[in-house]
Amino acid sequence: MTLERSLPDRAEVVIIGGGVMGASAAFHLAEAGVTDVVLLEADQLSCGSTSKSAGGVRLQFSDEINIALALRSMDAFERFGDRPGADIGLRQVGYLFLLTDPDDVTLFEQNTALQNSMGVPSRMVSAAEAGRLSTLANVDDVLAASVCMRDGHATPDAVVLGYATAARAMGVEILTRCPVTGIDVDAGEITGVRTERGTVSTSTVICVAGAWSPSIASMVGVSLPVQPVARPIWFTEPMPSRPEHLPMTIDFATGFYFHSEGPGLLFGMADPDQPAGFDAPMRHDWLEVVGDVVAHRAPALLEVGIAGGWHGFYETTPDHNALIGEAAAVSRFIYATGFSGHGFLLGPAVGEVLRDLVLGHTPAVDVSGFDVERFARETRPERNIV
Ligand SMILES: Cc1cc2nc3c(=O)[nH]c(=O)nc-3n(C[C@H](O)[C@H](O)[C@H](O)COP(=O)(O)OP(=O)(O)OC[C@H]3O[C@@H](n4cnc5c(N)ncnc54)[C@H](O)[C@@H]3O)c2cc1C
Predict the structure, then answer these.
(1) Domains of the chain
(2) Ligand 1 site, CB within 6 A
(3) How do residues 29-82 score in pLDDT, each as one tens digit?
C-alpha cells in the first residue's frame, strides 16, 4: 500500500523540482508567510544533481554575483543548526586551488582581489604553503595557489531534508513521485500545472528542475539554454594515512579534486570531451586517464582502493553562470537553473532570491545580470569553475 498525498486543487505558488533549489525556495517562502505552496518532485527529494554533488561550499568565484550569493549562502550554512535547524555536516576545511599555468595565477590574483573587496578571506599562497596545507598534494610544478579557509564541504541531502522538513512544518505541500507533464498558459498568464496525478491551479511557477529545466520551460514556450553534462565522482576505501586536516584540493588545470569523505577520500575529474545529453555515453577508460593525473598530483591516493562512485549531471550554460529571473513572455514563470557545477553551494541564497521574486521585493543580491536574456546583451563567464 502506498500512502500518497493528494494534489491540492489550487496553490498560490507551484515549485517544480525537489533538489536544493526547490527545498530552499519552499523554506524561504514559507518563512515569509507564503505557505500556500506546492512542491512537485518527479521522483524523490534530492534525487537529481543535488545528491550527486561533491558537497563543496566556497566563496572563491570570479563573478561578483556568485561571490555575493555564495557569501549569503555561507552565512546560512554556518547557522543551519538554528535556522532551519539541522546538522548538515559542514566542515570548513578550506578550498585550495593549485595553479600551474601563469595565466591562471594572474586570473586568481585578480579574483582574490575582487573577493577580498567583498569580504571574502581568500589569499594567494606559495607552492610551499599549498603543500603544507594539503599534505597529500604534490606541488613540485605548482606556481602558486589560492585558498580560503571559510570554504569547505557539507552534506547536500541533509540541506534538502532540513529545508523540506521545515517548509512542511510551516504548511508547504511536498509531493514526490509526481512528475509535471504540462503547464497551462492563457494570454501570457499561467493558469495551472498538470501532473500525472491531476492539475493544480496556480498563477505562479518556480522552475527549479535542474538539468531538466529546459523541458519544463518548453511547456510555456520559454527556451533555457541548459545542457546536462555527465560528471563522475569516486570515493575510496578507508585511508589510515589521511591527514586530519585536508582542504578541498583542486588541480585547476585538469579539474581533478579531492576532499575527505568518511574515513577515506572523495575525488572527481570530468572528461572535457564529454558530450552533452542524458544518454551521452561516458568514456569507459576515463578512470585510467584520471589515474595518471592522480599519480602525479596526489600519488598517496593510489595506495587505497576505490570503494565506489557515481555520476550526476551538471546543468551547464554557455557561460557557466546560472539563469535566474522571470520569463519575459510568460508572467510569473520564475526560473533558477544552469548552475554549471556550483548550485549546491548557492542554494540558500537563491532560495531567498526566488522568495523575493515571488513577493515582488528587491532581492538582497541583484541577480538581474543572470537573466536568460543576457545572451543577447553580453557574455559574463564565471571563470572559477571546477
Ligand atoms: C558530480 C557533481 C559534483 C558536483 N559538485 C558540486 C559541488 O561540490 N558544489 C556545488 O555547489 N555544486 C556541485 N554540483 C552541482 C550541484 O549538484 C547542482 O548545481 C545543484 O544540485 C542543482 O540543484 P537543483 O535543485 O537546481 O537541481 P536538482 O538537484 O537536479 O533538482 C531538480 C529536480 O527536479 C526534478 N524534476 C525533473 N523533471 C521534473 C518534472 N517534470 N516534474 C517534477 N520534478 C522534476 C528532478 O527529479 C530533480 O530532483 C555538482 C554536480 C555534480 C553532478
Answers:
(1) 13-54+157-226+319-377 (3.50.50.60), 95-149+227-316 (3.30.9.10)
(2) 16-22, 40-43, 47-50, 52-56, 179-180, 208-212, 216, 231, 233, 268, 312-315, 337, 339, 341-345
(3) 999 999 999 999 999 999 999 999 999 999 999 999 999 999 999 999 999 999
* Rounded distance between C-alpha atoms, residue 337 and residue 28, angstroms: 17
Site to probe by mutation for ligand 1, drawn from 21, 27, 50 as the one with most ligand atoms within 8 Å of Cβ, is: 50
- Å from CA of 343 to ligand 1 middle: 7
User: Which of 44, 47, 49 to mutate for ligand 1's pocket (most ligand atoms within 8 Å of CB)?
Assistant: 49
Of 257, 206, 198, which Cα lies nearest the Cα of 233? 257
Please state the separation of Cα 9 from the chain's center in Å.
32
Query: How high is the mean pLDDT of the chain?
Result: 97
C-alpha cell at 15: 515549485
CA separation for the pair 63, 261 (Å, rounded): 29
Q: What is the pLDDT of residues 255-286, one digit of tens each?
A: 999 999 999 999 999 999 999 999 999 999 99
Q: Is residue 2 pLDDT above 60, yes or no?
A: no
Q: What is the pLDDT of residues 347-361, one digit of tens each?
A: 999 999 999 999 999
Distance 47 CA to ligand 1 centre (A): 8
Q: Indicate the burial class of 188 (C-beta count within 10 angstroms; 0-12, 13-18, 19 or more).
A: middle
Grid cell for residue 139: 606541488
In whole angstroms, give the CA distance from residue 15 to residue 39: 5
